[in-house]
Amino acid sequence: MKITLLTVGKTEDTYLKDGIDKYTKRLKHYIKLDIIDLSELKNTKALTTDQQKTKEAELILKKLANTDHVILLDEKGMEFTSQKFANFLDKKAIGSVQNLVFIVGGPYGFDQSVYDRANDKLCLSRMTFSHQMVRLFFIEQLYRAYTILKGEPYHHE
């Protein structure tokens, strides 16, 4: 199974980039991970929030294949412990999901068209984090999940 993290905008802060790089390198031992950063919209001051979400949705939907299993990182999504997230990923792999695509939206969230395309929603926390930080938190949780599945000593309960 391949996993793709699709994000709106680039990670700008060096400390976040370093953390993402650290866990991305570690994940190479377990899975094929692609990170796709879509360009942030330009000249958004003249656009309403809904117009921005619609334009971001167009960019997101263009990157998805019909066979992709799409999971939005969204505050209204499923909440898991790290162990349950690992089990969720394992079930997707066993269930013959070929490409699991996790999406981090822009600062205003997702347009309804992206919600309509999604197969699932995942909530990392009930707290709100910047969409920059969510990337690092997600990649670390992905790494943690695979160490759990392999019985390696990274995760402690």
Automatic annotation (TrEMBL):
Keywords: Cytoplasm, Methyltransferase, rRNA processing, S-adenosyl-L-methionine, Transferase. One of its GO terms (molecular function) is rRNA (pseudouridine-N3-)-methyltransferase activity. GO terms for cellular component: cytoplasm. It catalyses: pseudouridine(1915) in 23S rRNA + S-adenosyl-L-methionine = N(3)-methylpseudouridine(1915) in 23S rRNA + S-adenosyl-L-homocysteine + H(+). Gene3D superfamilies: 3.40.1280.10. It comes from the Bacteria. This is Ribosomal RNA large subunit methyltransferase H. It comes from Mucilaginibacter polytrichastri.
